[in-house]
Each structure stands twice: as C-alpha cells, then as structure tokens.
Amino acid sequence: MDIILSKKELRKEVKSLKLQITSKQKLVSSAIIFEKIENIEIFQKAKTILLYWSLDDEVATHNHVKKWSTQKKVLLPVIDKDELVIREFTDEGLMKESLRFGIKEPIGENFVQLEQIDLVVVPGIAFDKNNNRLGRGKGYYDKLLPKLISAYKIGVCYRLQLLEEIPFDEKDVKMDFVVTD
C-alpha cells in the first residue's frame, strides 16, 4: 500500500514540475530526445516501431510519427476498454479522437503480429537511473509490454522526469534504455 501512495505522490510532484516547462522548451527537448533515438543503431535497423501520439504533457511525438512513417512501419497504441491494442499509423487524417483521454488514435484493423515490433518508444510520468518506469497508474503499458518479447524498449522523458530511484513492483516493466534531453 505504501508503494501505491508514494507512486501517487510522485505522479503529483512530477506533474507540478512539468508545468514549469514552456511549450517551446517541450518542442526543443523533444527534438533533442528523438535526434538521440535516431542515432541509436537499434532504431536505424528497426523496421517496425511502436510509438505513441503524445498528450500535451508528454515528450512530443507528432512530428516524429509523421516523419518516421515515411521510412518505417509506425504503430500507435489505441485504448480498448482496459488495455492497449495497436494500429498502424498511415496518415493523421485517418485518426479519430479517443473519448477516454482525447488522444488521437488510428482507425483501422488491429496490428496483431507483435513479434514484428522491433522497437517501442514509451512515455512515462517518471523514470529512474535503473530504467524503471512510473506510468499514469492505469497499467496499460504494463499489460502490453510483456507481450512484445522481441522489442527493444526505450523510455522517453524530459530531464526533470529522470530521477535517482522510483517505486516499482513486479507488474512494472523495466525499459532497456531511457533517453532524455
């Protein structure tokens, strides 16, 4: 129970810290983060990447989803009840706004060849130096990531979201690597 309370408090603390970052700073930092990812050999070799369509308080992905989709198969998560399903991004015009979080999600068939996913770029509220991730608390990614056995998992966050240590439990999925600005 203590871990849940401390996770909740940490989410609240990081949320207030992120309010100090301007929109311009977010875009600059996001560009730095994705430039670093583009220079990683795993990214360069990857054919199929699971990204995410960012919310305002997350590392911005919209430009990179569009850019990378011209070179690789880019997939995005879609909320379906209490879990994530995956669909291919082909064009922003072929997305609809989710009723749950107001996130744009691709329409179309679910992508089920999970073994084809080479790389996953994962948002989080906070990460630590041991590659642990603190999400929003719904467990969406913690249910999805164990199914992506062959995928390399990269967490992305602004520098202020990378902490020495965060609370984690057996359900939390560790990242292979965390990239920050």
The gist of it:
This protein is of the alpha/beta class and 181 residues long.
Plain-language structure description:
By secondary structure, the chain is α/β, with parallel strands linked by helices. The chain has a single domain (2-180), classed as NagB/RpiA/CoA transferase-like (Rossmann fold). It has five helices and eleven strands; from the N terminus they run αααβαβββββββαβββ. It has helices spanning 2-18, 23-38, 41-45, 62-68, 140-144; strands at 48-50, 73-80, 83-88, 95-97, 104-106, 119-122, 126-128, 133-134, 152-157, 162-163, 177-180. The strands form three sheets. The protein has a six-stranded mixed β-sheet with strand order 3-2-1-6-9-11. A three-stranded mixed β-sheet has the order 8-7-10, with helices on one face. It has a two-stranded antiparallel ribbon with strand order 4-5. A hairpin with a 2-residue loop joins strand 2 and strand 3 (83-88).
- Oligomer state equals single chain
**Integer tally of domains:** 1
The number of strands is 11
Low-confidence stretches: none
Largest sheet composition = 6 strands, mixed
Supply the helix-strand structural class.
Answer: alpha/beta
Distance between the termini: 33 Å
Strand content: 15-25%
Residue share in helix:
25-40%
CATH H-level superfamily title: NagB/RpiA/CoA transferase-like
Classified by CATH, the class is: Alpha Beta
The H-and-E topology, N to C, reads as HHHEHEEEEEEEHEEE
Tally of helical runs = 5
Instruction: Assign the CATH topology.
Output: Rossmann fold
